[in-house]
Write a structure and sequence with these properties.
By secondary structure, this protein is of the alpha/beta class. It contains 24 helices and 18 strands. The radius of gyration is 25 Å and the shape is globular. The termini are far apart.
């Protein structure tokens, strides 16, 4: 407080005011060296809501899910030491998936660095160097050591994150608490970015012309678009739909981009890759034109496509990231503008007739399961029938995720999130909370029991803040994908991945008496639980008992099984 009783403006206040331009939620776990920032958030409840998670991984996945679902900046904060280190796995996912996340990491006071400070990661005195560590999982990392440097540092970090984050700012406690007289941040960086964009504009126009010529020259043969996650990051869903209509193309999507094209549109042709649909390579191989729209095609999305892409006479890549396959023309730059320009240049009838009545997309055929529990396909069908338009879906890694990617159509106007960059288990619990808070609508999280035991107690965060979210946990008392691998690739005479039964529903109900919770052992019980969960305003939890020996619709497993 000042001598006149007014609140003194601190660097932390400056940070919160700047963050409020890009986000309305901040996720983290408290601690001594980040409490000044939470204190500043408490002074501005009208612009920023502070959320406290159970673990920094969970907080960072909340920021990641918030960013993916809303297209805004995800913000995560953590204190020094172990809290800071707990961010790394989640930031690695955001890094590999190019998600705009800004991590604000508290540090001990500058005067104590290298002098025995608790949780010292200054790099001095043979201590860990946080700046070097976080630089490996970020597009931009800096330590702020002077209060007057915070506006420029924020500018750099936010711009770097929005260009394909994450970014990290290391904030010593004394810097956060310092009195600030700063007002508006400098605009130097944005002016520089505008200048650089102008320099490349003519070059991009030339590439767009070349791509347009190639698309036109593809004649009257069939066209296929493979759409990837950069469409979502660019907010280019409408432009993709218009472009597909302009060139009369079927649209395939990568597993982490299921929501970028309406799944019930007649042009939708399914998912590519190891969890995808078996006809995708044939569609590409028979196409006169294949446009990769924001799809770099890593192996999870490219499996089975290499020969088909090589056979395609015209492959055009649109997007800022460098593709992992060869393309005849690569056009970088904002996807919305590129798709809009090409749609205007290339509108012409082609011979391909889109699927008139949304004929069923061929599925991978998995062997029949014989153990106890509900089958993946039946469970996903029950979910599909009960997902209202606008519902968002977040899936976790493993057999459960493979079944969801393959079988579940994304609800109209819904979002679909899955962590395929690093494939970290437990991602869905935090990401689902961030998605639900950011979009202010119901989110359904679908995970396995292995993921639940890693980070599922973020359910507590959902209960604490009454988040509109339904957690569906497929419980087979195993790391089932690892069980499947033991059986298919090794002798199957041993297992490290089957567990004694755990009654998740009973346990969650005991911990959270006010949380609506159901355990389903049959399909009918699961359908009843889903119907009851639909009318809840806040969180709900469903445990579904499954068979650990069921093989999911996962192409490498099915190939090995039939070999």
């Amino acid at each position: 407080m000042s001598e006149h009783g007014s609140v003194t403006r601190t660097v932390a206040d400056v940070i919160v005011a700047r963050l409020a331009e890009h986000a309305d939620h901040l996720f983290g776990v408290g601690g001594a060296n980040i409490e000044d920032l939470y204190d500043a958030v408490a002074r501005r409840p009208e612009v920023m809501t502070g959320i406290v998670a159970k673990h920094e991984f969970g907080a960072a996945t909340m920021a990641d899910g918030y960013a993916r679902a809303t297209g805004r900046l995800g913000v995560v904060v953590a204190t020094s030491g172990g809290g800071a280190m707990n961010l790394l796995a989640a930031l690695a996912e955001s890094y590999d998936s190019r998600v705009p996340v800004l991590a604000l990491v508290g540090q001990p006071p500058t005067a104590l660095e290298g002098r025995g400070a608790f949780q010292d990661t200054s790099g001095g005195g043979e201590r860990l160097d946080a700046e070097r560590i976080f630089a490996t999982v970020s597009r931009f990392c800096a330590k702020v050591t002077r209060a007057e440097d915070i506006p420029a540092a924020l500018d750099w970090a936010i711009d770097a994150a929005l260009a394909g984050g994450p970014a990290v700012l290391l904030l010593p406690k004394d810097i956060q608490a310092a009195v600030s007289t700063l007002t508006e941040p400098p605009m130097r960086i944005r002016r520089e970015l505008r200048r650089m964009t102008g320099e490349f504009r003519s070059h991009i126009a030339g590439l767009t012309d070349k791509a347009g010529d190639l698309i036109t020259a593809s004649g009257r043969g069939p066209a296929v678009i493979i759409a990837g996650p950069e469409i979502a990051r660019a907010g280019a869903r409408a432009e993709l739909t218009a472009f597909a209509a302009a060139i009369d193309a079927s649209v395939l999507v990568t597993p982490d981009a299921k929501d970028v094209f309406p799944n019930r549109d007649p042009r939708f042709a399914g998912v590519v890759g190891i969890m995808g649909h078996p006809h995708a390579p044939r569609l590409v191989a028979q196409a006169a034109l294949c446009v990769l729209a924001g799809a770099t095609l890593p192996m999870t999305a490219r499996a089975g496509l290499d020969d088909a892409l090589a056979a395609c006479p015209a492959v055009v890549y649109l997007g800022d990231e460098r593709p992992l396959v060869a393309a005849h023309v690569r056009v970088p730059g904002p996807l919305r503008h590129r798709l809009r320009d090409l749609a205007a240049r290339c509108s012409s009838p082609k011979s391909l007739v889109a699927q008139p009545d949304h004929a069923p997309i061929p599925e991978l055929v998995a062997p029949a399961a014989t153990g106890l529990g509900v089958r993946y396909r039946e469970a996903v069908a029950a979910l599909t029938a009960r997902l209202e338009p606008g519902t968002d879906v977040v899936a976790d890694a493993g057999n459960t995720g493979a079944a969801v990617v393959h079988h579940l159509p994304v609800p109209e106007d819904g979002r679909f999130l899955i962590a395929l960059g690093m494939g970290g288990m437990g991602y869905s619990f935090g990401a689902g909370i961030g998605c639900a808070l950011g979009r202010r609508r119901r989110t359904v999280v679908i995970a396995g029991d292995g993921s639940y035991f890693m980070h599922g107690h973020e359910v507590h965060t959902a209960v604490e803040y009454q988040v509109p979210i339904t957690f569906v946990v497929f419980n087979n008392n195993a790391h089932a994908m690892c069980v499947t691998r033991e059986q298919l690739y090794y002798s199957g005479d041993y297992t490290y991945n089957r567990f004694r039964p755990a009654q998740l529903g009973d346990g969650v109900a005991a911990i959270f008496p006010d949380l609506p919770t159901w355990t389903a052992t049959t399909l009918a019980e699961f359908e009843t639980a889903l119907d009851k969960a639909r009318i809840e305003a806040g969180p709900a939890f469903i445990e579904l008992r499954c068979d650990p020996d069921e093989i999911p619709p996962f192409a490498p497993f099915l190939k090995e099984h039939t070999a």
